[in-house]
Amino acid sequence: MSPAYNVYGYRFMLEGDAPEALAALAADFAFFAEPDDGQAPATHIRICNASPDYAALPPLRATVYTPRNLSYKDADVTVIDYHGRGLARHHRPSGDFELTTRDPNLQYEACYLFLLSQLGEALDRRGLHRVHALGISLRGRAILVLLPMGGGKSTLCAELLADPEVRLLSDDSPLIDTDGNVHAFPTRIGLLPGAEAKIPPQYRRTIERMTFGPKTLVDYRYFADRVDAEARPGFVCLGSRTLAGHGTLRPASRSAACRRFVHDCVVGMGLFQGLEFFFQKSTREILSRAPIVRSRAQASWAIIKRSELLELELGRDLAGNARLVLDHVRGRLG
What we know:
Layout: E1 3-7, E2 10-16, H1 19-28, E3 33-35, E4 43-48, E5 62-65, E6 70-74, E7 77-81, E8 87-91, E9 97-100, H2 104-125, E10 129-130, E11 134-138, E12 141-146, H3 153-160, E13 167-170, E14 175-176, E15 182-183, E16 189-191, E17 204-209, E18 213-218, E19 230-241, E20 248-251, H4 254-266, H5 275-278, H6 283-287, H7 290-305, E21 308-314, H8 318-333
Parallel strand pairs: 2-4, 4-9, 12-19, 19-21
Antiparallel strand pairs: 1-2, 1-3, 5-6, 6-7, 7-8, 8-9, 10-14, 11-12, 11-13, 14-15, 15-19, 16-18, 17-18, 20-21
């Protein structure tokens, strides 16, 4: 019986004849795997390892243009053209997604990004909201480090995990609820080239991304026994990078924290939002998202109120950055 994956109520199954891509996706979402009992409905993600048949398509006009792809509407189906490298069909009523390509990197990345887009919408409706941050826990208390894309979240994550007491929530997008609690979303850890030295090679793989070049991914197996399902609010670090040798840590204001959460949660800059799927919505559907924006704001305010707020300036000493955070947290927690 094929496994299903249940991400806080969003269920999906992986199918197809691209074993390497399917295995990589299964590894990414292993935390959420469950037996398929055939009862609950699930979205089907299917990869066809074949050359796409462009000649069979009707003469559709593109509705969404992105650097990754072009999207076309055909009744209840959205056709997505990855600039000649592959074709996908998203059946909107069922949510099913079928990708046809022989490109192994595209087989993996297109399905992973599709799932992030659909999960983001489904979890928003359930009151669980992504925040663009590194999330770890120590002694049951969450530590969020908000940094821009490319700011070093994953590198800091690898350094923090060198401490056996540290537990992982997510290296890029933990989930927060309207009480300020933080929930795990552990898929993989993505490292830029040169940052992977501390990770044993059997847990690493490198992909060539559509728009941002190569990235080394650390499999869930490497940290599977280090994941906390949930943590109470504890510490929020508003991070930045510097050229200083050593990092610094000092108190931050609520107003500064609110500005960062508007950017990294309420608006969700840095999170994959899936424009090719978002713009399938009608104007009425887009306007109906106002309650979700309010819920994101409420969740952000809840964690700000219940956490110690800190300005974290990262220095060039990578191990020192991790020690700086952990020494402060341990001092506060006694």
